[in-house]
Amino acid sequence: MLTKRFLIALVMVLSSSSWASAAENRWLHVRVEEAGPEGELVRINVPLSLAEKVLPAINSKELRGGKVKVSEAKFEEVDLRAILEALRTAPENEFVTVESSHQNVRVAKAGGNLLVKVRETKGKDSAETVEVSIPFPVVDALLSGNKDELDILAAVRALGTIGDVTLVTVHDKKNKVRIWVDSQNVAE
After folding, report:
1. Given a cut of 80, is residue 35 above it in pLDDT?
2. In a domain, 188, yes or no
3. 91: in domain
4. pLDDT tens readout for residues 10-28
């Protein structure tokens, strides 16, 4: 399951930039609820304008200057930009559906968003659902850098121009995670 450390790093990466005028009123939120008597509630609320200033200051391993190097991936075998262009020009539809005894996976385009939903179906006690919804302008910005990098700074700038949106939800028997962007300075 996602760790708190990963979530904090994700927030810093996702929230580290935005166009100043749009970002001043846009906030990236992360809410993590752990079940049980010892469970914790973590709320992170970061204005995109603050994040814009922080991201370029982080130079650690693959993350430098707001970009993540993905050189270890085999991108020479897959042209992500060509696939993105094909998806952008395709009609809204469910493109991939995989149903098995352990997991259901769905990849679709709807409402100007790239949608990915994964639902584990091993049993009642271990069911986990992960949903990702990324607006195409954010995907475009993410892939606007060099072939071997993801431009996180550009993606967060794009988030500053998008309306209220839930980006990620994760539910399992122990945790609930939600990552979203809106104009509120507090989490729900």
Report:
1. yes
2. no
3. yes
4. 555 544 433 334 445 899 9
